[in-house]
Amino acid sequence: MLSIPRVNQILKHPRFKEYSLYNNKAEEKRAFCHHGLDHGIAVARIAYIYLLEQQDTSLSKEVVYAAGLLHDLGRWQEYKTGEDHALVGAELVKPIIQDAGFNSTELETITQGIREHRLNPEGKMSLLGRALAYADDWARDCRNCLIKEACYKYTEQMNEIIC
Ligand SMILES: [Fe+2]
Ligand SMILES: [Fe+2]
Description:
Blueprint: H1 5-12, H2 14-26, H3 37-53, H4 61-70, H5 75-81, H6 85-92, H7 94-99, H8 104-116, H9 127-138
Bound molecules: fe (ii) ion (FE2) (2 copies).
One fe (ii) ion (FE2) binds next to loops.
């Protein structure tokens, strides 16, 4: 399947555009990695590859891509109020997921994955949460980052190509 219509609905959604703009503005002066559309697409693709490698086809490509694209959409709220963007973001994106045509089961799967994306992927969590948590780290090019030593996310292992 080359087309993923419900994911394209997400990209066109006014709230997706609005929150993406808030994120971009909030990170204008951020020295570390940004969380724009390129990061969302990278996480979606890597999470999907991870699931294919696990030979687990229980999640549709659209569900995985929706979660990847939406997982950091609440970041601007964290910059503003200090709330965890995984938790606040999972609530913010619900209308976008519904309007894009995902059913209630899919909505729950996607939002649970978003809530879990900052947790240790080795721990107990949903399949999508684990895929997002791994992909979130693997999507970063730490090797070429000049300020990696100052980054809270950086570990020695991130210099290795893992996926
Ligand atoms: Fe995040
Ligand atoms: Fe992320």
